[in-house]
Amino acid sequence: MKQKVFTLLAILISLTAFSQKDSLQIGDRYLEDQLYINITYNLLTSQPKELGDTGFSYGLALGYMRDIPLNRSGRNAFAVGLGYSYDSFDHDLKVLDDNNGDYEIDPDLSSNKIKLHNLEMPIQFRWRSSDANTYSFWRFYAGVKIIYNLSNEFRYKIIDESFSFSNLENYNKWQTGLTLSAGYGTFNFHVYYGLTPMFKNATLNGDSIDSRIVKVGLSFYLL
């Protein structure tokens, strides 16, 4: 499955070579920011109060966006895309069973990780101060992102014994979130706020777990 995803992305990215004219004049319609790379620091929010803060967690995403100008100047646009993301979380939730959705907190955990591989479909409304011959400009891109989880793995270690659970049944395979990218030139602030809980029917000491993913970092855009 992952190999097919990377192959599809490679095909989409190669198509961008034909999407821009060799020479553009001011006022011509043009396409912008079709490839993206996001590097983020990840957090888990809306967690049960018994859980501590998320440890060092990170994410990487890359993909292709189809830029659709909404006016002749190209400064207002709509974009839809397809991409891949990898996320790693250092957290305090110990998996007890991969089917029943039961968890606990164990003070003896020496390591506890969540590894996620996702297919993502961003949708954006775009405003930018660019024109056909301007390569550094202000941008403000807001939208939503639809995520399909390709695989999830929960690993933890107690003393010298390791445990691993993959593709938990109660993990939400489909998730959505709000996105915002804003900045000038190469470096752009990026934030993702998850609207969907990570888990379905998951409990901690009888209470529902409503953990949601938040990502804060940088976006890089290429033609």
Overall structural class, as computed from helix and strand content, comes to mainly beta
Number of helices: 1
What is the rounded distance between the termini? Answer: 27 Å
- Mean model confidence by pLDDT: 82
Instruction: Report the C-alpha radius of gyration, rounded.
Output: 20 Å
The biggest sheet, with number of strands, parallel, antiparallel or mixed sense and barrel status, is:
8 strands, antiparallel, barrel
- Strand arrangement, major sheet: 1-2-3-6-7-9-10-13
Helix content: under 10%
> Which stretches of 5+ consecutive residues score pLDDT under 50?
11-27
Share of residues in strands: over 45%
Number of domains: 1
Q: What global shape is seen?
A: elongated
N-to-C order of helices and strands: HEEEEEEEEEEEEE
How many beta-strand elements?
13
Describe the structure.
The structure is a single chain. With about 220 residues, this protein is mainly β. The protein has one helix spanning about 1-15, and strands at about 35-45, 60-70, 75-90, 95, 100-105, 110-130, 140-160, 160-165, 175-185, 185-195, 205, 205-210, 210-220. It is elongated. It starts with a helix and ends with a strand.
